[in-house]
Amino acid sequence: MNKSIIILLLVLTACQGNVDMQKIEQWKAEITNTEHQFAAVAEEKGIAAAFYEYADSNAAIKREGKVIRGREAIKKYYDSQNLANVRLQWTPSFVDVSTSGDLGYTYGDFIYSEKDSTGKVNETKGIFHTVWKKQKDGGWKYVWD
After folding, report:
1. Beta-bridge mates of residue 128
2. Contact, 86 vs 112, CB < 8 A?
3. Which end of the chain is flanked by fewer CB atoms within 10 Å, N or C?
4. What is the chain's pLDDT, residue by residue, as a tens digit (145 residues)?
5. Pure H helices in 46-123
6. Which of 74, 80, 22 minimizes the C-alpha distance to 52?
7. Contact 79, 49 (CB under 8 A)
8. Which three-class secondary structure state does DSSP give residue 129?
9. Which of these CATH numbers, 3.10.450.50, 3.40.50.620, 3.90.660.10, 3.20.20.150, describes 2-144?
10. Where are the alpha helices (DSSP H) in 1-145?
11. What is the pTM of this model?
12. Phi and psi torsions of 144, nearest 5°
């Protein structure tokens, strides 16, 4: 009888692990999809709209050596920038999520392109890192970028 209980517990534990891994993979896919949608909004509607739309109410970004806290402050920051000739593109190359499924992060490559007054395009390439928080509605918003 004891061997049967041990075997049953091992089987249940193994099944539970698979379910958790499936959830983790699902959450990773959700975050990756959100990251791609975020980038698409930046292309279609502009950087300011994208960073506002995908920001958690308590989001923070670091720009020009300063931390800007809060969705409204982020909007104000981007509204004050001249982004008419700027293009920002990025692609996540890595995503991970907590086992509880409430926080995740991505990183990957970005290209910041700016056309100057002569029409020359200057590019800056780098690595981005974003922390994502699951929202009450099941969606994801960034809390750090």
Report:
1. 108
2. yes
3. N
4. 445 444 433 444 444 455 489 999 999 999 999 999 999 999 999 999 999 999 999 999 999 999 999 999 999 999 999 998 999 999 999 999 999 999 999 999 999 999 998 989 999 999 999 999 999 999 999 999 9
5. 47-53, 71-79
6. 74
7. no
8. strand
9. 3.10.450.50
10. 2-45, 47-53, 71-79
11. 0.84
12. -150, 135
Helix or strand run (H / E) with residue 137: none
Cβ–Cβ < 8 Å for 116, 127: no
Task: Measure the CA–CA gap between 94 and 118, rounded to whole angstroms.
Answer: 37
6 residue type, one letter: I
DSSP state of 136: T
Give the whole-angstrom CA distance, residue 129 versus residue 139: 19
In this prediction, residue 8 carries a pLDDT of: 36
Q: Determine the Cα–Cα distance for residues 89 and 47; give it in Å rounded to an integer.
A: 10
pLDDT for position 1: 44
| Cα–Cα distance, 116 to 67 (Å, whole number) | 27
